[in-house]
Amino acid sequence: MSTIFIAGQRWISNPEPDLGLGIILEAQNRRVVIAFPAAEEERTYAAAAAPLSRVLFQVGDDIDVPGQGRLVVKEQQENSGCIVYFAEDENGDIHPVPEQILSANIKLSNAKERLLAGQVEHHRRFELRAATLEQQNTCKAASTLGLLGPRVQLLPHQLYIAAEVASRAAPRVLLADEVGLGKTIEAGLIIHQLLLLERAKRVLILLPDSLVHQWLVEMLRRFNLKFSIFNEARCRQVDQYEDDPSSIFFDEEESKEKEENPFEDAQLVICPLSWISGHERRQGQLMEAGWDMLVVDEAHHLHWQEDGSSSAEYQLVERLSAEIPSVLLLTATPENAGIDGHFARLRLLDPARYPSLDAFRAEQSQYEGISELIQGLLDHPSESLADSNFTAKLSELLEPAQLAALATKPDATLIEKVVRDLLDRFGTGRMLFRNTRASVGGFPQRVLHEHPLDAPAEYQAALALVDEESALHPELLLGDTWIKLDPRVAWVERFLLQHPDEKVLLICSTMNTARDLELQLRVRRGIASAVFVEELSLIERDRAAAYFADPEDGAQVLICSEIGSEGRNFQFAQHLVLFDLPLNPDLLEQRIGRLDRIGQLGDVNLHVPYYQDSGQEKLLSWYRDALAIFSQPCTVGNALMLEFGGELLAALGGKQNTSAFDDLISRASVKAEELALSLRNGRNRLLELNSCNPARAAELITSLESEQRSDSLAEYVGILSDQFGLVHEDHSDNAVILRPGDHMITEAFPHLPEDGITGTFDRDRALSREDMAYFSWEHPLISGGMDLIMSSDFGSTTVCTIAVKGLKAGTLLLEAFFSPSLQAPPWLQLHRYLPAQSFRLVIDHQQRNLTANVAHKKLNQLAQGIKKTVMPALLREVRSSLTSMIPHVESLAETATKEWVSTALAQYQSDRSAERQRLQALMSRNPHISPAELESFDAETLLGKDALGNMQLNMSALRLAIVSQ
Ligand SMILES: Nc1ncnc2c1ncn2[C@@H]1O[C@H](COP(=O)(O)OP(=O)(O)OP(=O)(O)O)[C@@H](O)[C@H]1O
User: Which residues form ligand 1's pocket by a CB distance below 6 Å?
Assistant: First the structure.
């Protein structure tokens, strides 16, 4: 026989089973033409490589015949290569059914049906499916879902926060790590986890203009998350509404028809806050679009006063956060505008918990006492618990049973639990996270370089007419020629010319100063420079920042107005020129934070050119000697300004003699130390304990390192590419190039660009090679490929032969893979309670369970393909054995299901009841937890219990191995 295909036979497409049951139209000249009536499609293949499987029904199978419904096959006869079935209807009448008239709508939905119908695929596909099943179950069961994929260094403080926050049903938190410790990365990790857990689908990020593109790039580059920037131009593309009634073209009816909500056009949206907060109609649309999560960076710009007045930005965020379940606010300087502002932001997150500023102030004063108790428990528990004073204080806070347990056996686990309870209930709360350089460690040195200069006579002359603050800015006093007169300019020129290979960031307070300076350096001195100021468009600003970042042909100096002080990443530079000093210490901290941030590899050199014997020199001394901000981050600056600000201003204006000023500095410095000590012992200590649990963080890192499994992933990607027809080339050690191939079995492959992608399996390499993707099990190309397989029948059945010495020829081995099916939302993370693998069974035709004796890998090694031409006859021969083997594996799986369910339920219930006790304890003492939270916790427990109780093991893949001679 030249071909196995005969016109009239019914076959099904392996890669496109959804086309339904096909009928061979023509089979000659080594070509086969097949029609798929259900899909109204036709395909032509080379007969030898046609991806088709013969569909043969057996006695007892149901068949579907148009006009006659479902019939049961009683007998079949072959006639010139085609089959005629004799099938019984529900009245017991037998009808002859030539296969040509069978319904084209066929769905062989599970592995069992497909194997019995003879729809089998190459054994390599089966192996890929089995590997996919295994990996998916491992990933789903991992407690670190969503943390593996991001291209980030595994930093303990970030991972701890991300895992802790994302474990909450609807997290509402303030991420307030010190400048440059990675709040954007923490937010990205949280967003990524919530998206993977399907706790969030629609995410809205509100940002200052200058950070819009940086976030866009960070989200894509590090998290593979494609956000869209929404501004007026983007909205107008969707919404054609004309909102100017005075226009002669205005037609209200027509305009309304054209109105569409542009924010419904994307799931992941970034919006410049300045634009949206000033646009009422767009705000309405934004509110209506519905979001699962809101993120606001540099949240200290949201202004609020105790009298109820607030900025437009605050009002918008207040409205949004009342509607959106999950909210992340980010700021490095939460007390930028004093404690009121800090309170105002916490109030956005939970108005019930933070009802009044007075109560909030009172609560702050308790922190030191709570911290002392916690310290006592952690540092010397036995001694502390033997002290009656200590236990008396503790008894005011703990349940009697908890205190009794502590007195009896104060072991490490119990102490940890009590400390956590105290932190939750009486500490800074579950809403505020703040890591500091001191707690994280490993940061560079700040090195101050003072550059005293002689003030020009013109400055001295102008001084008499201005206030203290203006006196700090000679550039505003020296007139149009300031650039020539101001000795700081000449100093900057000299410094840049003497250090031609150093990148230098210069920050000054106003846009005009920045522009004048840049012009002077670039045009008059030929220094490669760029300017970063508010009048530039977002794209121009990013262009300037990119020009500065370019290590080869980039600018030597970037000159920024104050908008360059926030959020941007300039840690590749090691010199910061503070052309002037701001009066707000948090602003100065933000400026220094551009260089002093994660990724800074050298010292942070801080240059201050100043006029001798001027207010500038005094301000420098204030920051250097009272706040010590040039050697370490200062967290008490605002408190000092509140107490000494008036005196300082007077001193800057020269209204104090030298010794009075020295006295001010020494009093302020003593106060700074006192405040810092009190914060260290009180609030900061509590925050530190709440913001990172090093043991938990270390566990997370260990899990992530072991879940990376780069070698298995590389192997998996190789097989995936082969089976889907992607071109797969080695790039270098641990890196590959993937491209669409000419013989792909699907039209496109998820997340595979047309011109291909280069990726590495090595996290460190991915961190240093921006041009490569980081391939992890969570990379969308890989997870997309896995979904492609598991959402179809790809590779679900195969038949192969194996030659094994110990087994008799003709022995049949049936290998079955089952995957757990849980009807529950993924955010419940119930897979954590199931074994991290799929359920596998191997039996022989005598129904013996050989699972432990026959390894899956061994079968893979031994498997030999079977020619298509012999497959139908072979399957006919083994069919009766198969029909008894399959129910047997199904019954074994049913028994296993019961065991899985009972183990999972026991663990789930014990975890949930421990968590419930914690919540109840929290509720009984303070309003951190509302009763509604406990109710929703109980509802969630019930949901989880039901879902686990109804868990099923679904047969997902079957391999029949026939032992050959
Ligand atoms: N885990 C990490 N892996 C790699 N790079 C990181 C990591 N964490 C932070 N970075 C880098 O460190 C820099 C600072 O991080 P990020 O911008 O998130 O800090 P931030 O706290 O938001 O800063 P700011 O207070 O200035 O807004 C960025 O360049 C960021 O890409």
Answer: 152-153, 155, 158, 177, 179-185, 332, 567, 569, 593, 597-599
